[in-house]
User: Which sequence fits this backbone?
């Protein structure tokens, strides 16, 4: 099963002077277990696209199917589909509202009408997965956590619904470097631990280069590129800045070195690997430090 | 230009307990300096920024802006005109439905003659490279363009000092570059004093001076090539260093002779292949 978008177009405020076509004829299949990054400049249609994945927006034209169910169809079906596709919005910590972390994460499962035991079990496992064990954090107030921790509580609230697809819109915006690393470590663990498909919308090129197996570049409401991150960042013919994008910082450094005639591998991302590559490139040139 | 003397700021949490967000902070920023401030979430960066234009006033100690004490209420409007602020979310700071009207909002409130307002708006939009968008609706601009309009609004007030609190956190890479380049140009060509808070270490490198905050204290203060050489200490604080500094350190550990203070791509390239 999968999420299928067929010829999807979306227009904001049609038939008004403010009418704007945000998506144009999108065809896309998201398979279970994929890790997809979506990048593109502000206003390119990324957020509009992901809001179609669980029926928050209905396409102006075209069809969205989740595991074979048409999202335009009956309301009851839509509700079930929404449980399969969990959405974590930008700055999700603003949506926390309960007195305790346990209650906040339990809000979704309780609304599913689950038994108290089942709710407790889901809350426990969701908090465990984001590294905030219920025994230590359950009875604390979510508002006394750091920004990164609050965001993880919000993510736990979504994964307690046990979705098959997890959509995250800019999960690292505004976090400091360690907060950023922590949240992405958690997302990777979740991905490997649950087999959930992850769709990650981000402006951070480092993150998608490291984590995503498949990358979509949105531009003017269309999918401009669909492929592996390495194919995007290492194709020198693609003009990234036209899409509001840039190279990951490390790739940019490696390109600078290559332009100086040093034969380094520009697909590397970790500083230690890069250092090794620089050293061996220098040795190949048979000069100690070129 | 900006000076704090043992500046303290105390917040009360919901249990009524006192939290010291700034703990005896002493910093002096001269007119025309470009200072980047880095630190973890909750280290006190934004609290410090809000003291610099009297959005907050000291719990203890003092904050002096262009010779005026922020605790002296009679100076408050002069202080806020001297120091303009730009925040993280571009959508929260635009008030008008046309770009030029948004930039004119501040000067209009100063009660200036309309010819002077027009002149200031023209100048401000030119300085951030947004002249061609003057009649556009702000909602049609990109994030980077909105932030540049917000900066123009500060310039139209003839503020001599610009405090930016994570102005690029919500922008795409090209938008980040646009904003940083505008700020650098204003500093270089117009002599504007800049205090730039960021979580992007590659942006901090553009400043002349980097101030590192942790738990309400300033714990490092120096030129970027000095601060970012302390790779281990910076990492231990939960921050990061530019990739070139990281690779330089790795190469040194492998026995290569890379000069201290190598923190840019160009610098590293020059050190390896002169």
Assistant:
């Amino acid at each position: 099963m999968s999420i299928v978008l067929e010829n999807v177009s979306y227009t904001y405020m049609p038939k008004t002077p403010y009418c704007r076509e945000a998506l144009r004829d999108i065809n896309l299949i998201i398979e279970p277990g994929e890790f997809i990054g979506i990048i593109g400049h502000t206003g390119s249609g990324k957020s509009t696209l992901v809001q179609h994945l669980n029926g928050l927006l209905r396409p102006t034209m075209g069809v969205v199917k989740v595991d074979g169910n048409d999202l335009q169809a009956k309301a009851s079906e839509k509700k079930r589909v929404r449980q399969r596709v969990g959405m974590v919005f930008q700055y999700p910590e603003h949506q926390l509202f309960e007195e305790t972390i346990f209650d906040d994460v339990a809000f979704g499962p309780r609304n599913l009408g689950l038994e108290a035991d089942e709710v407790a079990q889901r809350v426990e496992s969701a908090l465990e997965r984001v590294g905030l064990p219920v025994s230590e954090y359950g009875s604390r107030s979510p508002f006394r956590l750091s920004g990164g921790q609050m965001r993880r509580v919000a993510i736990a609230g979504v994964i307690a619904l046990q979705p098959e697809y997890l959509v995250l819109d800019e999960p690292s915006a505004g976090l400091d470097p360690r907060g950023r690393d922590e949240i992405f470590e958690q997302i990777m663990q979740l991905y490997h631990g649950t087999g959930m498909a992850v769709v990650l919308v981000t402006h951070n090129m480092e993150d998608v280069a490291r984590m995503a197996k498949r990358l979509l570049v949105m531009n003017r409401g269309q999918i401009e590129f669909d492929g592996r991150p390495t194919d995007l960042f290492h194709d020198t013919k693609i003009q990234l800045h036209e899409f509001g994008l840039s190279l990951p910082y490390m790739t940019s450094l490696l390109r600078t070195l290559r332009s100086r005639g040093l034969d380094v591998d520009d697909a590397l991302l970790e500083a230690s690997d890069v250092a090794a590559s620089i050293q061996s490139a220098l040795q190949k040139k048979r000069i100690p430090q070129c | 230009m900006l000076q704090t003397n043992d500046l303290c700021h105390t917040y009360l949490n919901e249990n009524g307990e006192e939290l010291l967000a700034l703990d005896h902070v002493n910093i002096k920023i001269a007119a025309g300096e470009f200072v980047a401030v880095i630190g973890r979430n909750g280290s006190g960066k934004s609290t410090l920024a809000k003291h610099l234009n009297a959005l907050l006033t000291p719990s203890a100690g003092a904050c002096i802006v262009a010779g005026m004490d922020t605790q002296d209420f009679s100076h408050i409007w002069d202080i806020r005109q001297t120091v303009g602020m730009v925040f993280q979310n571009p959508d929260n700071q635009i008030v008008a439905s046309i770009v030029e009207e948004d930039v004119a909002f501040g000067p209009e409130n100063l009660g200036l003659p309309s010819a002077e307002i027009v002149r200031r708006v023209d100048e401000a939009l030119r300085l951030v490279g947004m002249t061609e968008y003057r009649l556009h609706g702000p909602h049609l601009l990109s994030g980077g363009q909105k932030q540049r309009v917000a900066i123009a609004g500060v310039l139209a007030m003839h503020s001599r000092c610009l405090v930016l609190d994570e102005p690029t956190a919500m922008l795409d890479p090209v938008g980040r570059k646009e904003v940083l380049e505008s700020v650098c140009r204003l500093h270089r060509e117009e002599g504007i004093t800049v205090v730039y808070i960021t979580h992007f270490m590659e942006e901090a490198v553009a400043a002349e001076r980097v101030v590192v905050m942790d738990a309400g204290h300033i714990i490092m203060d120096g030129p970027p090539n000095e601060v970012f050489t302390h790779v281990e200490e910076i990492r231990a604080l939960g921050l990061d260093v530019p990739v070139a500094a990281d690779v330089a350190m790795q190469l040194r550990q492998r026995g290569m002779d890379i000069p201290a203070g190598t923190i840019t791509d160009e610098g590293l390239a020059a050190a390896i292949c002169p």
